[in-house]
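Q: Structure tokens for this one, please.
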Amino acid sequence: MADLFVYGTLRDETLRARLLGRRVRALPARLRGFAVRAVRDADYPALVPDRSGVVTGLLLTGLDAGDLARLDRYEGGEYRRVPVRAEVAGRLRPAWVYLWCDRRSRLGGPP
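A: Here is the predicted structure, written as tokens:
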């Protein structure tokens, strides 16, 4: 089983349930060392490294390999899934996150 930190469209419970075919547990979480940026001409954000940044989001817990494969397809080629340590209730937990890997010229400021 795996955990995934989400910060954008995947925070929406209805969307997650549609993608995964079920509801999953979501805990309030933070991720240090990153920032969220707007993507020009898109209605979704991007996560980029930022040493002083802190991003609030959710930690989705109990995901299996099939769940991650479905989410990988949803995120597409603009993102890559990377390991991080997300903070939940003051404790760090290993997790995955989708990091922006497309052309940075499409990025703007905070959404």
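A few notes: Helices lie at 13-20, 65-75. Strands lie at 2-6, 26-38, 45-63, 79-88, 91-100.
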